[in-house]
Amino acid sequence: MKPLRWAILGLGRFGMIHARALQGMPDVELVAASSRQAGPLAERAAELGIARHETDYRLLLDDDQIDVVSIVTHWQQHHELALAALAAGKHVLLEKPMAASSQQCRDILAAAESAAGTLMVGHICRFDPRYSLAREAIQQGRIGEVVSMHARRNLPLAEPHIRGDKISPLMGDGIHDADMMIWMLGRAPSRVFARNIRCHDFAYPDLGWAMLEFSPHADGPEAIGVVETIWCLPENVPSVIDARMQIIGTEGAITIDSANTGLLINNADQVKQVDTAFWPVQHGQLVGLLAEELRYFVACLRDGSQPDVVPSSDAALAVLVMEAAEASAACRQPVEIDLPDWLTAAAD
Question: pTM for the whole thing?
Answer without folding.
Answer: 0.96
